[in-house]
Amino acid sequence: MVLAAAPLVAQPYSAAHRTEEGAACLLEEGLSRIITLTGDASHRQQTQLAPPAGGRRRDWTGFARFRGEWWLADGTPALHVYAADGRWLRRVVAAAPASDLFVARGRLFLYDATPAPTPMRLWYSDDGRAFHRSQAANLVPPTVPPRSLVIAVHVLFASTPDGGFVCAPLVGPPLLTRADRNGANRKQVPLAYSRRIEREKTAGIGRTDVPLEQYSAPVRDLLATPAGEIIVLRNREDVRAANGQVVPEQARRIDRYSHDGKHLGTATFGEKVRWIVSANASGVVAMTADGDIVRAVFAAPQPAQVLATIRAGK
């Protein structure tokens, strides 16, 4: 069932997807309901998904709009397919467990985030039936010990207008990887991300005696604009306060990068945001965890900093 102009209420969202037409879609946690926002979020549409065959509630881990249908993943090889109006249609068994889905120029991508040693985590399908291995092997570094894979496997993706994609680790070094639609011709772009020197030393994943909050967590959300620019929501940062102390700051800065990785600008919000809705050269529209729509303009780029805990000379 589709309801036009549905209100956004204080409801957590578990996953996001951007359609190739530029709409931002958010999946409401535990409700099997998709909210679609277009442009500056002035138009909202709600799609209620019917229970899948068997009626058992699912904990969805990712979703995408593919060939006019909604495809949902729950961390298993079973993908559940819904019509545009929310009717359950069928189940498709993929070649690997699906933790996340995204679509790039008519191609459905599947990402396997199971904490098991395997170089083949990214798969794709052009027809929704046959799945093939992508050339994008080792999106998770092969040097990561098996015991640390439960952290290292979490990667964020965004499709690009040329049919390729960008990705970045949820926890790990502040690097963005750009690849073509076959997963080849990869290029790494350093991201603006400020952190204490202690967290810079644990940017990589491999130690289990380090609390998770001491690792670098550079990216919270990604968006590729129709113009090919990359928009990045910084996650858990450390910043220098007015009194000279280094204090934590989460998800208040969004950066704009050119196609080739040049840092073009930074927008700063007065509150923590969770999702990027849309962006252009002048500013960005975002959503808070409570579902509020907020806006900020891009100003001069704020570069990365590695901060000593005590200011020099103090």
Percentage of residues in DSSP E strands: 35-45%
- Our measurement of the CA-to-CA distance between the termini, rounded to an integer number of angstroms, reads 62 Å
Overall spatial form: globular
Query: Gyration radius, to the nearest Å?
Result: 19 Å
Largest sheet: 5 strands, antiparallel
- The class by helix and strand makeup works out as mainly beta
Compute the number of helices.
Answer: 2
What is the share of helical residues? under 10%
Q: What is the spatial order of strands in the main beta sheet?
A: 1-5-4-3-2
Stretches where pLDDT is under 50 for at least 5 consecutive residues are 1-10
Order of helices and strands: EEEEEEEEEEEEEHEEEEEHEEEEEEEEE
Chain oligomer state? single chain
Report the average pLDDT across residues: 84
Q: Based on DSSP secondary structure assignment, what is the total number of beta strands?
A: 27
List the helices and strands and how they pair.
Elements: E1 2-4, E2 13-18, E3 24-28, E4 33-38, E5 43-48, E6 62-66, E7 69-73, E8 78-82, E9 88-93, E10 100-104, E11 107-111, E12 122-125, E13 132-133, H1 149-152, E14 155-159, E15 165-169, E16 175-179, E17 187-190, E18 195-196, H2 197-201, E19 217-224, E20 230-240, E21 246-250, E22 253-257, E23 263-268, E24 275-279, E25 283-287, E26 293-297, E27 306-307
Parallel strand pairs: 18-27
Antiparallel strand pairs: 1-5, 2-3, 3-4, 4-5, 6-7, 7-8, 8-9, 10-11, 11-12, 12-13, 14-15, 15-16, 16-17, 19-20, 20-21, 20-22, 22-23, 24-25, 25-26
